[in-house]
């Protein structure tokens, strides 16, 4: 009997490690229908916000009626999301000579200023929807 109880406990423990949640991201405030929205998702501060190679998810979303939608299934954890409006379709964020973005940018938690993981991070422990508003300079 003890072996059965231990076996059930181990089996249930295995399921808890593999749990995922669905993250739905709505991008709002897009000023034009040109180009696409590019996004990156980070699970820690390493590489955030600009080292795309350290992102755990990256991709693009199409613009429809001034908004874009992204749907991801991710393991439970903490994440930060960066997005930008690649209006000229060159797969890069255009900046001015000060390094400020010339295309719309946004991040989870919608804080303005220099993006940081600490200010952008949120917890994903169940299905969640977040809204990111783009900011244009």
Automatic annotation (TrEMBL):
<dbReference type="InterPro" id="IPR018673">
    <property type="entry name" value="DUF2141"/>
</dbReference>
<protein>
    <submittedName>
        <fullName>DUF2141 domain-containing protein</fullName>
    </submittedName>
</protein>
<keyword id="KW-0732">Signal</keyword>
<feature type="signal peptide">
    <location>
        <begin position="1"/>
        <end position="21"/>
    </location>
</feature>
<dbReference type="Pfam" id="PF09912">
    <property type="entry name" value="DUF2141"/>
</dbReference>
């Amino acid at each position: 009997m003890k072996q059965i109880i231990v076996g059930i406990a181990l089996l249930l423990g295995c399921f808890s490690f593999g749990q995922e949640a669905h993250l739905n991201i709505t991008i709002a405030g897009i000023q034009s229908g040109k180009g696409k929205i590019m996004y990156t998702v980070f699970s820690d501060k390493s590489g955030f916000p600009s080292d795309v190679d350290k992102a755990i998810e990256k991709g693009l979303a199409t613009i429809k009626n001034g908004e874009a939608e992204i749907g991801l299934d991710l393991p439970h954890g903490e994440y930060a999301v960066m997005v930008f409006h690649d209006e000229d379709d060159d797969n890069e964020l255009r900046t001015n000579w000060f390094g400020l973005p010339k295309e719309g940018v946004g991040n989870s938690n919608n804080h303005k200023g220099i993006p940081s993981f600490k200010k952008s991070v949120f917890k994903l422990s169940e299905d969640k929807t977040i809204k990111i508003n783009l900011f244009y300079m």
